[in-house]
Amino acid sequence: MSGGSTSTAMVVENHYPHISELTSHQKDKIAELRSKTKDILATYPEYDTDFSLLRWLMGWDYKIDVIIPKMKYAIETLVNLGMNNHQTTSIQQINKDIKNMSAVAEYFPGGIMGQSKRGDVVYMQAMAKAGAHPKTLVKAGPTSQLFQLCISETEMSFKIIRQTEEEKQRKMGVIIIMDLDGFNMDLLYTPTLKVYMSLLTMLQNIFPDFARRIFIINCPTMMSAVYAMVSPVLSSQTREKVRFLDKDWKNHLIEEIGEENIFMHWGGNKKHEHPCGDIRMGGKVPESLWYNETHKLEGDRTKISISARSKTEVKMYGETGKHFHWLWRVSSGDIDFSIEKDGRVVWPVFRCLTEFHPEIGSYKIEENGEYVFVFDNSHGKIFGKDVKYKIVLE
């Protein structure tokens, strides 16, 4: 994904340079950004590469003062999700790890198909036919679970990218393919569309300049209206990378990616026992996985009211080795939720919607002290919101 518009000066630069092709301007800016973010990078040393920093610079027009707080949020989120300690051994392992994140993961379509002949990671998302089924997905897991899955999957892809960049000494990216074969209006279910928009915004903020190409295949005639709904949350740089492919899309993909790197279902000859490989193909989530309000934290909860443009904090003492467990619902709309300790965010800021599933989670306490649970309605301009929550220490 990408985070900002491309300046006129950047247009003449090679967007995917070899290390030897970096301009003196780029080298100077990389060194400046590294110097000003050394404390942030120290929490995730693997992230500290010239090309990783160049992505931020290219994604945000080399505006270092703009980049620093955004990078802090991004790396903070990745570290909170344990990505700094996650060992990525292969693409097959990534797909397996994502499926194992939750029982619902299998029903959110997508997965890494492999790498292109250049070395870019190829991500396939088959949204239609079996595809995503928003009306059952929202009943089967909290919003934060979807955010964790998508951020983790993207960062695991990023780890493959960094490994390839180290080998080839050239900046790489991700080729995203969105297959809309069998598209139906259920995909535009309003409550989940809002969640998806928040997810797109978050991914762009955490992963600037990540997509090299975004190919959309099997487009229905209504796609122009759908794209008009989604495009406002896409940065101009992301929009520039979107390509709607015609009926000859298989040949386009083969030319761009290589036939040997595409599963048979999409016109290639990459070998796998299943034509779609290990890509998650989605489908309706069975009722057995829907939330049924029998969670141990259901029942008596504390109510707090949060005015528009404000936040409320709940403080609790935590003991090393124990866990915080929580369950909460917001009366309407969504709320930003996070956990802080000593001014540091230790549970990522996620904008959560609880209309169909309460926000449920747990956090393992690594050090004694006071923890602050933040319910933030700063993005609410007019209406206040009530939250009913229960947090226990076990």
UniProtKB/TrEMBL annotation:
Highest taxon of source: Eukaryota
One GO cellular component term: cytoplasm
Domain GOLD, first and last residues per copy: 287-393
SMART domains hit by this protein: SEC14 (SM00516)
The organism's taxonomic lineage, starting at the top: Eukaryota, Metazoa, Ecdysozoa, Nematoda, Chromadorea
PROSITE patterns: CRAL_TRIO, GOLD
InterPro entries for this protein: CRAL-TRIO_dom, CRAL-TRIO_dom_sf, CRAL/TRIO_N_dom_sf, GOLD_dom, GOLD_dom_sf, SEC14/CRAL-TRIO_domain
Protein name: CRAL-TRIO domain-containing protein
Start and end residues of each CRAL-TRIO domain: 100-274
